Known about the structure:
Layout: H1 13-26, E1 31-34, E2 39-43, E3 48-50, E4 53-56, E5 60-68, E6 71-79, E7 84-86, E8 94-96, E9 102-104, E10 113-121, E11 126-136, H2 139-195
Parallel strand pairs: 2-11
Antiparallel strand pairs: 1-4, 3-9, 5-6, 5-10, 6-7, 8-9, 10-11
Amino acid sequence: ALQEVPSRPGHSLLHHLRTRCLLCLSAPGGVSLIVPQPNINATVAQNILLSVEYSCRGVATIEWKHVSSWGTTKIVEWKSGNYVNISTTYKDRVTTFENGSIQLLNVGMRDAGYYFITVTEEYGTNTYGTIVVNVYEIIYEDLHFVAVLFAFLAAVSAILICFMWLCNKSLHLFQKTTHKLTASTTEEIELETIEC
């Protein structure tokens, strides 16, 4: 807390402000938290960084929770320089950083929602921050699948058309050969008849 410095003769305003600032810096307790990006848009399977920056004079305990339509889940809690307690749901998906930030790997639709951070310092002072995460389906992958399927069907159609054309040609050749054989057989029969 700031202490009032009594104004005495000979004390300038500048000296008064300097004294107040020094008292402010040396006062026990107090924690601050900065959330530079309170809204994050992500796509499925992306890694996201929930970035924060805290400062306090004592040892801080950091806790992250996720709140969505599926309920509230505690993600991680740790004390700077001591322990890190990650919930089993997030065991292989969360990385913690000394500044209080966490990285969430391979996000899914269920990871959308509100992420609350609580920073509590050893004197009992705490502060809160919130980050909203929106997760979207990857539309271009669906379009990619459709394009590949269309190309595959077009290739199969082209092969079938070529096969049908070859079959048709073979049939015409077979019919011509059969017609020639029939004609020559007919001529032989007519010749035999004439000879008789």
